[in-house]
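Lab notebook, design round three. We kept the backbone fixed and only want residue identities now. Task for the bench partner: fill in a sequence for the structure below.
Input structure tokens:
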């Protein structure tokens, strides 16, 4: 974790955020300025400078969280019939 990194501070709950899922590798929070309902940030708990640096376990955790969040958000937001529904998940590194 880098204390100067906003993503790290949010992932480690040093900043106020609406946490909706976490495991040992990632923390998932609702964006404070969402593009649409359910806009969620998936934040690795370890600090990375580039996508290529992310280890296999964290990559797996990111995709596991993406699938879980997709199911949960689709269930909660009931997007059936809404042509404009789009899930936005951001990776903040
Ligand atoms: Zn960071």
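Proposed sequence:
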């Amino acid at each position: 974790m880098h204390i100067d990194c906003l993503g790290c501070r949010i992932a480690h709950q040093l900043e106020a955020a609406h946490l909706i899922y976490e495991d040992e590798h990632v923390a998932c929070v609702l964006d404070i300025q969402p593009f649409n309902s359910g806009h969620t940030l998936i934040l690795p708990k370890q600090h990375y400078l580039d996508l290529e640096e992310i280890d296999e376990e964290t990559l797996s955790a990111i995709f596991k969280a993406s699938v879980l969040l997709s199911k949960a958000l689709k269930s909660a937001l009931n997007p059936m019939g809404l042509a404009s529904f789009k899930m936005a998940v951001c990776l903040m590194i």
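Keep this in mind before ordering anything: The pocket of zinc ion is lined by residues 2, 5, 7-8, 47 (CB under 6 Å).
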